[in-house]
Write a structure and sequence with these properties.
This protein is α+β, with helices and mostly antiparallel strands and 159 residues long. Helix content is 35%, strand content 36%. The protein is built from four helices and eight strands; from the N terminus they run αβαββββαβββα. α1 runs antiparallel to α4. It starts with a helix and ends with a helix.
């Protein structure tokens, strides 16, 4: 069912660009504010990357704007969310991540960590290229939350 929701969300996205905004940090902040998003914090990493952290539907997530010209007019973005893992990942964890990537058409699940500190994260991202139209809209954010919810449901499944 979640796969069909993701496909339906993509179809809605393809049919509508009316809610799109220019890909500037200020425009993305305004977009997120209009979508019941809270705790919005923007950090300029350098002239080409801006990170916007926020909370929506109880989840912390990040919009990373990339390939920006002087911190504005960004041509690519990635929306992602990560979760702390309670323990070092096992082969079963990696297999479960790969199974998500094999079965869900949008977003990419990942597992990253630091073997020195035993700090591991699991997450999912959705990349948006804005090279041609230079916009990021509510449809993309909504699709990311469909992806995020499908990822959470998948990760709670047991084999």
């Amino acid at each position: 069912m979640l796969k069909s929701l993701a496909i339906a969300a993509l179809a809605a996205f393809a049919a509508s660009t009316a809610s799109a905004v220019p890909a500037t940090p200020e425009a993305v902040e305004a977009l997120l504010e209009s979508m019941n998003t809270t705790d919005i914090v923007t950090e300029t990493i350098d002239d080409t990357i801006v990170r916007i952290d926020a909370t929506r539907q109880g989840y912390n997530f990040t919009v990373r704007l990339m390939d920006c010209t002087d911190g504005t007019n960004c041509v690519s973005s990635m929306i992602f969310a990560t979760f702390n893992m309670d323990a070092r990942p096992t082969l079963a964890d990696f297999t479960h991540i790969n199974l998500y990537n094999d079965n869900y058409p949008f977003g990419r699940a990942f597992l990253i960590g630091d073997t020195e500190t035993d700090g591991y994260l699991v997450g999912v991202d959705y990349a948006v290229s804005m090279a041609d139209e230079n916009v990021l809209g509510a449809d993309e954010v909504d699709l990311f939350f469909v992806i995020l919810n499908s990822f959470i449901a998948h990760m709670q499944e047991t084999d």
